[in-house]
Specification:
Layout: H1 3-6, H2 36-46, E1 51-57, H3 63-76, E2 80-84, H4 95-106, H5 111-124, E3 129-133, H6 136-141, H7 149-154, E4 158-160, H8 166-178, E5 182-184, E6 186-187, H9 193-200, E7 207-210, H10 226-235, E8 241-244, H11 250-257, E9 262-265, H12 267-279, H13 285-307
Parallel strand pairs: 1-2, 1-9, 2-3, 3-4, 4-5, 6-7, 7-8, 8-9
Length: 312
């Protein structure tokens, strides 16, 4: 993970006080929620496999495609879909996701539109686990770290904020729990043992384990020490562990599934979406949408098959 991001969600160790919106005191004993995210992880576990968590950028190639793509990804075997909020300075993201977010921003996609997308998906009957991946500024600008209830009302189950410092996380976590949302903790190979212990404590949601120091992006090879590191994270506490950053395809997913409760695939899927959108017909909108959905679902189906029966 980028050092600037590691200085935020993945690194800082300070505790926080204060009062969140609605009178929820930071650090208060607010019970962890149990929602669609927990149900998805539990279902995968009961089936003897790691959960498949996939990422798409909202509005890439456009919101109409995303609206059709998300339910198709669930039908193809995804357990959880991360919906990426386009942001102008995505510190944790590599070139593939940066380009997808810039295209979405150029089309005018903003947080309000992303929440409308989530609401529309729920109205359509999508009942799979949806997690928002966003940077801190869009939430801070709208007071959503203090009062995240509009995120829950839209139909989200969890939120990942890569650049949220631990001090801010301490202030926000009780409010997120009270709203019925999981604020997903992140750990990296550079995280301190204390940070890992705090992230792994509890049972709800999952720990997002960043496989490498650097940014997102599919990689041909992942560190040899990654399996042993994942085993240590899983031993640190009861919270499920999911591994992301760099997972490029089914073979890597299969190998990592032996050491994690979930496998996260982002850039490799976004690459296939971009290729299909670029190669699709520019005059036949239905054909373009179909090409994107077909390319994405074929890849997700292969990933899901690789994970079947592979959880320890």
């Amino acid at each position: 993970m980028d050092p600037a991001v590691a200085g935020g969600a993945v690194a800082g160790e300070a505790a926080a006080g204060g009062v969140a919106a609605g009178g929820v005191e930071a650090g208060a004993e607010v019970p962890e929620p149990v929602n669609r995210l927990d149900a998805a992880l539990a279902r995968a576990r009961s089936e003897g496999r790691a959960a498949l968590i996939v990422y798409v950028t909202a509005g890439h190639p456009d919101l109409a495609v995303t609206r059709q793509l998300v339910p198709a990804l669930f039908a193809a075997g995804a357990d959880v879909v991360e919906v990426g909020m386009p942001f102008s300075d995505p510190l944790a993201d590599g070139p593939t996701i940066q380009q997808s977010t810039q295209k979405a921003l150029a089309r005018g996609v903003r947080l309000a539109g992303v929440l409308d997308l989530v609401r529309d998906l729920r109205v359509q009957g999508v009942d799979g686990a949806l997690v928002l991946l966003t940077y801190a500024n869009p939430l801070l600008a709208r007071g959503l770290l203090d009062d995240p209830s509009p995120l829950a009302a839209a139909g989200l189950d969890g939120v990942i904020v890569p650049d949220l410092p631990m001090v801010e996380r301490g202030r926000a976590e009780a409010a997120f729990r009270a709203a019925g949302l999981h604020l997903i903790p992140m750990v990296a190979p550079t995280s301190s043992p204390e940070h890992v212990r705090r992230a792994a404590a509890g049972r709800g949601g999952f720990v997002y384990c960043v496989s490498v120091t650097g940014v997102t992006g599919a990689r041909k090879n992942l560190p040899d020490e990654l399996p042993a590191w994942l085993d240590r994270i899983r031993a640190a506490g009861p919270r499920p562990v999911a591994i992301g950053f760099g997972v490029s395809g089914p073979e890597q997913a299969r190998a990592l599934a032996a050491h994690a409760d979930g496998v996260i695939v982002g850039s490799a899927l976004v690459e296939r979406i971009e290729e299909a959108a670029r190669d699709g017909s520019s005059t036949d909108e239905q054909a373009r949408v179909r090409a994107v959905v077909d390319a994405a679902t074929a890849f997700v189906t292969a990933l899901r098959q690789a994970l079947t029966g592979n959880r320890p």
